Amino acid sequence: MSIKQNIYPFTALVGQENMKKALILNVINPALGGVLIRGEKGTAKSTAVRALADLLESLKVVDLPISATEDQVVGSLNIEEAIKTGEKKFEPGLLAKAHKNILYIDEINLLDDHIVDVLLDAAAMGVNTVEREGISYSHPAKFVLVGTMNPEEGDLRPQLLDRFALSVEVIGEQNPKDRVEVVKRRLAFEKDPESFVTGYEEAQQLLAEQIIHAQKVIHDVVVTDETLEIAAKISIKLDIDGHRADLMMIKTAMTIAAFEGRLQVEKNDLLKAATLVLPHRLRRTPFEDYNQGWSDIEKLVNEECLV
């Protein structure tokens, strides 16, 4: 593995375990459909995304600015050229560049809802289709969608929230020792990047190998009917709309199993998946806290998993 001195190592990040796991799971299985990271500034959201891309080397991060137009995102067709020559001339957009990479949108809650819809459609289908004046063009668009946002600056509509497979809430570390460690590691990195990165090279290599192996076996993971039934019962008891939550719980649990080197989903995988899939799908009033009621979810999942 080559060392890039200006990229902070993923394995050097302190805490934020749910965020790191959600990112890893989406890299293993881009078909999950993306992750929304909600939290205050200065909680290593952007650092984690770029560090994970660097870890795997085959990935790069494509940034999507919140000022981007639809044509800049999906690409455009040169209608005049098509009429003159009869040939489709496609000008690629950011989705084409993001193919097999990470598409990163900071402050996604400030992006136009229509463009968020387009991004989520492409992430779910793995294909981007552009239609103009009766002419259409499609190209592969399999990417890892990562959106970050500060809830204090406004939220996404519930319909859009539900489209994200996973969602995590991040806050600054509350343990004094962990906060000290965050600062110590950052100072060490800034003082001598080469030495700091070298110190994490073995851990980086091991994690990269674990992810690559999981990518190879994810399609061989099996899930029992009993586990499927538990997922369905959980969604029914929590009064969650539609079937997307059930599907996402199962797909996430399968990805967790692959990451942990197993080819069959265990009940505990479903509990871990629920922590990432369910909180942002709960019905709540505008004044309810995002994490309100999570203890009830955990209790419910544990009860079902222990049956």
What is the CATH H-level superfamily of the largest domain?
P-loop containing nucleotide triphosphate hydrolases
CATH structural fold name of the largest domain: Rossmann fold
SSE topology string: HEHEHEHEHEHEEEHEHHHHHHH
Please tell me the total number of domains. Answer: 2
Binned, the helix content reads 40-55%
Number of strands: 9
Q: What percentage of the residues does DSSP assign to strands (E)? A: 5-15%
The first-to-last residue Cα distance is 45 Å
Rounded to an integer in angstroms, the radius of gyration calculated over CA atoms is 20 Å
Mean pLDDT: 84
User: What shape does the CA trace take?
Assistant: globular
Regions with little confidence, pLDDT below 50 for 5+ residues: none
Major pleated sheet: 5 strands, parallel
CATH architecture of the largest domain: 3-Layer(aba) Sandwich
List the total number of helices: 14
List the helices and strands and how they pair.
Layout (H helix, E strand, L loop, with lengths): L16 H12 L6 E5 L5 H12 L4 E3 L6 H5 L1 E2 L1 H7 L4 E2 L2 H5 L3 E5 L6 H13 L1 E6 L2 E6 L3 E6 L8 H6 L2 E5 L5 H16 L1 H7 L1 H17 L7 H13 L6 H16 L7 H11 L16 H13 L1
Parallel strand pairs: 1-8, 1-9, 2-5, 5-8
Antiparallel strand pairs: 3-4, 6-7
How does this model look, in words?
The mean pLDDT is 84. With 307 residues, the protein is of the alpha/beta class. The protein folds into two domains: 10-170, P-loop containing nucleotide triphosphate hydrolases (Rossmann fold), CATH 3.40.50.300; 221-306, Helicase, Ruva Protein, domain 3, CATH 1.10.8.80. Strands 2-5-8-1-9 form a five-stranded parallel β-sheet, with helices on both faces. It has a two-stranded antiparallel sheet with strand order 3-4. β6 (127-132) and β7 (135-140) form a beta hairpin. The protein has helices at residues 17-28, 45-56, 70-74, 79-85, 94-98, 113-125, 158-163, 176-191, 193-199, 201-217, 225-237, 244-259, 267-277, 294-306, and strands at residues 35-39, 61-63, 76-77, 90-91, 102-106, 127-132, 135-140, 144-149, 166-170. This is Magnesium chelatase. One of its GO terms (molecular function) is ATP hydrolysis activity.
